[in-house]
Task: inverse folding
């Protein structure tokens, strides 16, 4: 791996770390995905920021179990336009990628895996220099 790539990957990882204990991998409002990668490089927000996207789970002490995520509303909190894709599929091991959705700075987008599908990931990329950032504002 090139030294520059390692530094950019480390920057993306460090910007996404949280310290909320057992909820560290639970996706929900307020979670962020930030990328300092070069223009046009994609970052996995499921891995670096949002946590597990497949299921919406209540707090560990709440009644009820997990259910499949139906939609995620995200806001572009960065200074430039970003492009996101939804990685989805009917089951583990079978994945499809949606067309890219452009989100202008300060705007929101509702991302859905489709009926009967699991949401595996949301990827983030930008076309220009500078940080890219998405925040989860709603989950259903």
Result:
């Amino acid at each position: 791996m090139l030294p520059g790539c390692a530094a950019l990957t480390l920057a993306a990882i460090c910007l996404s770390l949280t310290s909320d204990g057992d909820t560290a991998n639970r996706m929900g409002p307020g979670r962020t995905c930030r990328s300092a990668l070069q223009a046009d490089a994609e970052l996995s927000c499921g891995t670096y920021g949002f946590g597990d996207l497949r299921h919406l789970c209540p707090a560990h002490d709440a009644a009820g179990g997990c259910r499949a995520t139906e939609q995620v509303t995200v806001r572009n909190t960065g200074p430039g336009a970003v492009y996101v894709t939804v990685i989805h599929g009917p089951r583990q091991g079978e994945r499809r990628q949606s067309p890219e959705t452009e989100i202008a700075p300060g705007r929101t987008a509702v991302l859905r895996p489709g009926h009967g599908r699991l949401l595996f990931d949301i990827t983030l990329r930008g076309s220009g220099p500078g940080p890219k950032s998405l925040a989860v504002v709603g989950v259903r």
Remarks:
- The first helix runs from residue 3 to 16.
- The first strand starts at residue 32 and ends at 35.
